[in-house]
Amino acid sequence: MALINVYNTIDSALQDRTRSWTAPFVWLEGRTGISHVKLFLGCMLTALAFVIASGRMVMLVSNLLGFAYPMYATIELMMRDDIRGETPSPPVPAEQHGRGAPVSPATRWLTYWITFAAVLIVQQLCGDVLQIIPFYFLAKIVFFAWCALPMEANGATFVHRFIVRDYLKQFFI
């Protein structure tokens, strides 16, 4: 019952057109279709994330955020491949090899996990030094969010094209 009262209080405060904070929420609600209460709660959770990012739980939070969605997407890809019978992807035309070549979802997620593991290893080895760098963990969260974006030109694709293909292939070919 108390949560409903809190929800109704927030809802009525956000709909009060005389308040200065109403305009951004009305504009965002019109642009996104997300209710103003959900937008407000999202802003509060984001603010909470910044507070946590400056505290002692920052390493755990950044690792969990870097782990949760990619784990789900990887498992979903594996299940989809199991259902399809693991059909191989079509060959890439010769003119599309190199940095401009498309990257398969499996390669993208494998690259993500390799990058995630490499960052965690460096963090384990240099943890005390990294903790004194301002906003390191926030930058790490943003980097992993960019790497996990569900789009073709995400960070994992960038890492694969410009690091794995260029620098690491000489050790494996």
Shape: globular
> Runs with pLDDT <50, length 5+?
none
| Proportion in β-strands | under 5%
Annotation field: number of helices: 7
Instruction: Note the main sheet.
Output: none
Give the ordered list of helices and strands: HHHHHHH
Care to describe what's here?
The chain has helices at residues 2-15, 22-32, 36-53, 58-84, 105-131, 136-148, 155-168. The chain is mainly alpha-helical. The longest helix is centred in the middle third of the chain and has 27 residues, at 58-84. It is globular.
Write the layout of secondary structure elements.
Elements: H1 2-15, H2 22-32, H3 36-53, H4 58-84, H5 105-131, H6 136-148, H7 155-168
